[in-house]
Amino acid sequence: MSPPAMLFQEPASPPQQMTVPSKAAALPHGAAIPIKGATNFDTVEAMAGKWNDFSFRPIRESQVSRAMTRRYFNDLDKYAESDIVIVGAGSCGLSTAYTLAKARPDLKIAIVEAGVAPGGGAWLGGQLFSAMIMRKPADAFLREIGVPYEDDGDHSNFVVVKHAALFTSTLLSKVLQFPNVKLFNATAVEDLITRPDGKGGIRVAGVVTNWTLVSMHHDDQSCMDPNTINAPVVISTTGHDGPFGAFSVKRLVSMQAIPALGGMRGLDMNVAEDAIVKGTREIVTGLITGGMELSEVDGANRMGPTFAAMAISGVHAAEVALEVFEQ
Ligand code: 48N
User: What's the gap in Å between 45 CA and the centre of ligand 1?
Assistant: First the structure.
């Protein structure tokens, strides 16, 4: 039975084909739109006083969208097979990335960071104070990456970076400039890719990722499947606190790849920092852990507001990873 005519009102005529709204839409990808009246300045100084006629070069919104999405999806494709994945872009993860990328420009290094802002806990010193303390000999890492610091001379056992953000922003800037490094921030590792290790256990062979906001809502939405990155080496530096803290080692326990976590112990600066640097290692085949995530595995003490161990644990984690590649 056909529905009554009044419910079935065919449109009078098919919608007019949308004409090309402007010449821009017909431009090939990335072509420059003819410059009409855009002002040109080679330096910021040259702009002084010329605001009445100031005008940016014209753009079409789709050009912005294509410039962003093309690059992002090219990177997703390129890093779907990475040599090394670093989970967590805190002070340890970034120090690891810097050391690795500098030593091996041939390796593809993907950094997966759950936060929109990388840097983890290293934007402030302690209790929201600005200055960052690093015990010697970690001042050597500061000189390596070009971070200025105050040093009271050889009789002093530590140096002071006047603002923790100076360390983190300098390190982040160096890491992001390496052509063989890609940072996927606002992206969470929500599982590990594993393979049998042939000895009854597992080896880690990559990471499972999702947008962090998606990862945080698996319990209130229907299934939102993840993405993956294959890599023979994963370096997990996910810290000891925060919504995803100590992620990889907790996951290794839940999949019974390691028996249990030691649980981070109380604060003891002298014991904690040496233990973290010395203990940085491959926890299971294919997964290296450093920084404060390690304190959860080993039951190491925490050190509170001193960051030397984070930087040097990163240097050690990079060395462990390179040994895997040199085997
Ligand atoms: O800064 P964190 O938390 O971790 P580390 O180990 O680089 O540095 C630790 C340091 O900041 C301290 O905790 C200081 C020294 N205090 C010690 C003490 O006694 O309290 O960085 C970890 C990063 C963060 O940016 C997280 O967002 C990220 O890892 N992260 C993840 N990213 C992706 N996927 C995950 N599953 C994930 N989990 C954490």
Answer: 41
